[in-house]
């Protein structure tokens, strides 16, 4: 019986590590999300250049890009990944909402 208990403990340990890995994957941003934040960190001479970069580099329409970006601003994973950019964009968003 003790041998069975030891095996059960080992199985639980393996399951615990598997759950940790799965939670880690949930916490990490996907490549597209990281690319969106990286594009937001860059400076562009005008809106046309930024829209062109969105289409060419990310393969997204500008409308879809901004939908995804807006959702990212409320994602704690994005905040953990790039707090400076996310907080800057949150401030801009709040200022624009207050103006409406």
What characteristics describe this protein?
mainly alpha; 100 residues; globular; single chain; 6 helices
Q: What's the helical proportion of residues?
A: over 70%
> What's the count of strands?
0
- Output mean pLDDT: 85
- Straight-line distance between termini: 70 Å
Q: What characterizes the major β-sheet?
A: none
Low-confidence stretches: none
- What structural class do helix, strand and pairing data support? mainly alpha
Radius of gyration: 21 Å
Strand content: under 5%
Could you give the order of the helices and strands? HHHHHH
Number of helices: 6
Q: What is the general shape?
A: globular
If you had to describe this structure to a student in words, what would you say it looks like?
The protein is mostly helical and 100 residues long. The chain has a domain at 32-99. Helices cover 84% and strands 0% of the residues. The protein has helices at 2-27, 31-41, 47-58, 62-73, 76-81, 83-99. Helix 2 (31-41) packs antiparallel against helix 3. The longest helix is centred in the first third of the chain and has 26 residues, at 2-27. It is globular, with a radius of gyration of 21 Å.
């Amino acid at each position: 019986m003790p041998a069975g208990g030891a095996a059960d403990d080992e199985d639980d340990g393996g399951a615990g590590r598997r759950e940790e890995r799965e939670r880690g994957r949930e916490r990490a941003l996907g490549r597209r999300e990281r690319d969106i934040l990286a594009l937001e960190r860059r400076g562009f001479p005008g809106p046309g250049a930024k829209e062109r970069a969105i289409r060419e580099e990310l393969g997204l329409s500008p409308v879809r890009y901004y939908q995804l970006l807006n959702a990212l601003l409320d994602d704690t994973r994005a905040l953990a990944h790039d707090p400076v950019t996310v907080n800057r964009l949150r401030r801009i968003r709040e200022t624009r909402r207050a103006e409406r």
